[in-house]
Amino acid sequence: MPDSDWWRSAVIYQVYVRSFADADGDGTGDLAGVRAKLPYLAQLGVDALWFNPWYASPMADGGYDVADYRAIHPSFGTLAEAEKLIEEAAGHGIRTIVDIVPNHVSEAHPWFRAALAEGPGGPSRDLFHFRPGRGEHGELAPNDWRSEFGGPAWTRLPDGEWYLHLFAPEQPDLNWAHPAVRTEHEEILRFWFERGVAGVRIDSAALPAKDPALPDFTPGQDPHPYLDRDELHDIYRSWRAVADRYGAVFVGEVWLPDSERFARYLRPDELHTAFNFAFLSCPWEPERLRAAIRDTLAEHAPVGAPATWVLCNHDITRTVTRYGRAETGFDFAAKRFGTPTDPALGTRRARAAALLSLALPGATYLYQGEELGLPEAEIPREHIEDPMHARSGGVDPGRDGCRVPLPWTADAPHAGFSTGEPWLPQPPGWAAHAADLQDGDPASMLTLYRTALALRRATPGLGDGPLEWLESPEEVLAFRRPGGVLCLVNLGAGPVPVPEGTELLLASGALGADGALPSDTAVWLREPAAA
């Protein structure tokens, strides 16, 4: 595969900087901490690092409220350090992907500050969605839209006008019908591509365009007033023209149930890839997983785009915990405090899921700490920072449980994350998952991931390419990749035989004494070469 097509088969490691590694001891992860761990990431075997927003931000929503795209958050470091990190990562053979959040900015962004200062009718207000309210005295919101975080999507200002925010009030939505918004974002792309960034992840990629009339929402209305509007495709075609001049790539966060609409974002002149949420949220059930994989490959085929596979990210309950629960799928609306889980069962399934995802055609995203088998942490209410918790009235535990700072060294303060108090508390027993304890342990999750990534890179047939389903019992996922590499995953209650005459490449757990594949276990095999 040409080097320019690296993204089609890449394993991309997601770095949530705030929780990765802290070099200066203030309790917050930073870019110097990431730089110090580049040898670890190179040994892990990843192709690229995707960084959640590292920009200047008041951190009302974990950095997704961006105040300045051309500056690094002071807690993380400086622009010069970011440039050095990009360069040093490249020296390890690791590319860099940054996050862009086109739907909104921070209330601290200079544009929004100017809009507030100018008052009603000021030109800066045209960069956002300001409207007078409804009702006799403008006391009612301009429409009935709801925030993705719960509650109304409008906030009223003292001057009487309301502004739109599909997320938190600190994140005012931009008006993408204004040419200055489009020009600014294309300049932001150039700014980072000039600094050696190889790609951009687009947050909430299906949301930026709005119906200019801002009508009330009617379920089932077509087109939707703010989701997946046709105007978006012209925006992303313009972005693609910018990226192509630098050989850079895009991955979009596109949550859409309609596979045909989803595939439109992946046409050859738009985005290169998009996240696969059907697979990420799928329960640990053979028919559901089989259908998610088949549907994913089918919806990507017409546009020639590679699929992406991900088990967890900075918003999603960690895999070990989710797969150990009675309900193994993921739904934001279902998150609750105190949901019981079986860690041993979840770990077995997470190990099997790792081999499954890495054997599928296309690119794989690996969220930091998944390679350590970290569980979801239940954060004490008084320490929760995620606005989803507050906006839910305290019902939703929020997303902080998958954002707890990583454990690096078992016998060091705060498990080696920082010499200072971490910004989120690490739960009891966190040090037992430390990377230094897992290093060299043949049974550890870290060793499994390192071995799988090395095999994936060295084995022709893994990565992008065709997949052929094999006949198998209903509870077993079985498929062949080019070169005779087989992947079998047993989701049933009892052991199943593996094909005779095959060579064992890697297993997520110990096979039975008779060589059978136990429950909740995956295996990579190689068929004998044809005579």
From TrEMBL:
The organism's place on the tree of life at top rank: Bacteria
Residue span(s) of domain Glycosyl hydrolase family 13 catalytic: 14-403
Pfam families for this protein: Alpha-amylase
Family the entry assigns: Belongs to the glycosyl hydrolase 13 family.
Database matches in SUPFAM superfamilies: (Trans)glycosidases
Gene3D superfamilies linked to this entry: Glycosidases, Oligo-1,6-glucosidase, Domain 2
Protein name: Alpha-glucosidase
Lineage: Bacteria, Bacillati, Actinomycetota, Actinomycetes, Kitasatosporales
